[in-house]
Amino acid sequence: MTVSILQRITGGALYFGTLLIAWWLIAASTSESYFDFVNGIFGSWFGRLVLFGYTWALIHHMLGGIRHLIWDTGSGLEKHTASKIAWGNLALGIVLTVLVWIAGYAARGM
After folding, report:
1. I need a labelling partner for 57 at 20 to 30 A (CA). Which of 15, 73, 86, 95 fits?
2. To 10 degrees, the CA torsion angle through 4, 79, 96, 52?
3. DSSP codes of every residue in 30-69
4. Total structural domains in the chain?
5. Cα 32 to Cα 50: distance, rounded to the nearest angstrom
6. Burial category of 42 from C-beta neighbours within 10 Å (exposed 0-12, middle 13-18, buried 19 and up)
7. Which pLDDT does position 100 carry in this prediction?
8. What is the pLDDT of residues 78-88, one digit of tens each?
């Protein structure tokens, strides 16, 4: 039940995060000073925390979709198995989010 509720919450959070990405793209297409302003917000500790949360929401929601796809085939519907898949979804979402951010920082040379 908890993972199902998180699935709905992350779906809502993705709307907000997508607006932030659209804001960043609009800033990139306007002026250098406005882009620097928006980039400064996203580069702050709070901005990076929000982007980290957005990354987790995106990955968790995607994994939840895969979980539901598996259930649509009729597999994994037993209570014990469904519970294991749900907790795996949560754990894998966290691990993949951290790996994406490590890869991002490694690609930037930081």
Report:
1. 73
2. 20
3. S-HHHHHHHHHHHHSHHHHHHHHHHHHHHHHHHHHHHHHH
4. 1
5. 23
6. middle
7. 97
8. 889 988 998 99
